[in-house]
């Protein structure tokens, strides 16, 4: 089983990776183990397998986005704190309908490992500016936002407690961005250092959906849909 030792400052390509890339979070570790099991099955049987590494999916046509995921939880906490987290780097969230179409394209692809994310990322700062416009909240320094989140229960009570708990439950994950750094040899990240950015070279070549010049970048109208959905289901305070 050939693997790539991903320890350099470039996005991981569509190959099996050493375990070091997944160590530290149970979620990513379980994904790595699952990939190894699929690969073993492919090597020992006649089963034809395809591994699809999906980045962050965003809401569908109606804006529906699972409110327990990290970004909705971050926005819920922000609504209580009265501020949004600033940051840097790309955001490559892929709308669910686009991801579904891309997977159909890739079913017959010759590659056994596929990466799926938005081929045209936008800046984290731009996405937070969109949320700021829709929610009427200022954007603050990320470390300030983290510090405020860690003491969130000192400032809220009543109905706001639910939204505070959603974000506070992921405090350790949000703090991991503060230690990702920009050191030489550090992974290329997205989502303000919370995720590793994946290379899309081979995947883009065999996917017409991702190559479509009409595929739009994420923008403020997407944010309006997501926020509208979260408000409808009670994951964000109503206006």
TrEMBL record:
Gene3D superfamilies: NAD(P)-binding Rossmann-like Domain
Signal peptide from the UniProt entry: none
Superkingdom of source: Eukaryota
Ranges for domain Thioester reductase (TE): 24-102
A matching Pfam family: NAD_binding_4
Cross-referenced InterPro entries: Adenylate-forming_Reductase (IPR051414), FAR_NAD-bd (IPR013120), NAD(P)-bd_dom_sf (IPR036291)
Keyword field: Phosphopantetheine, Phosphoprotein
Name of this chain's protein: Thioester reductase (TE) domain-containing protein
Species for this entry: Polyporus arcularius HHB13444
């Amino acid at each position: 089983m050939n693997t790539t030792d991903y320890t350099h400052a470039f996005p991981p390509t569509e190959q099996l990776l050493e375990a070091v890339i997944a160590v530290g979070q149970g979620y990513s570790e379980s994904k790595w183990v699952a990939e190894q099991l699929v690969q073993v099955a492919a090597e020992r049987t006649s089963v034809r397998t395809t591994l699809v590494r999906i980045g962050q999916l965003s809401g569908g046509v109606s804006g529906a986005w699972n409110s327990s995921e990290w970004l909705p939880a971050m926005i819920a906490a922000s609504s209580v704190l009265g501020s949004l987290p600033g940051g840097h780097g790309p955001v490559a969230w892929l709308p669910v309908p686009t991801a579904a179409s891309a997977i159909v394209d890739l079913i017959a692809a010759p590659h056994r490992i596929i990466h799926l994310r938005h081929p045209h990322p936008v800046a984290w700062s731009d996405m937070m500016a969109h949320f700021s416009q829709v929610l009427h909240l200022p954007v603050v320094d990320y470390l300030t936002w983290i510090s405020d989140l860690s003491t969130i229960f000192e400032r809220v009570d009543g109905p706001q407690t639910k939204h505070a708990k959603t974000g506070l439950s992921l405090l350790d994950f949000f703090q991991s961005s503060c230690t990702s750094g920009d050191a030489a040899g550090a992974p290329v990240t997205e989502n303000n250092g919370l995720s590793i950015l994946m290379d899309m070279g081979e995947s883009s070549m065999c996917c017409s959906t991702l190559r479509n010049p009409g595929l739009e970048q994420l923008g403020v109208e997407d944010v309006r849909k997501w926020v509208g959905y979260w408000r409808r289901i009670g994951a964000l305070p109503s206006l």
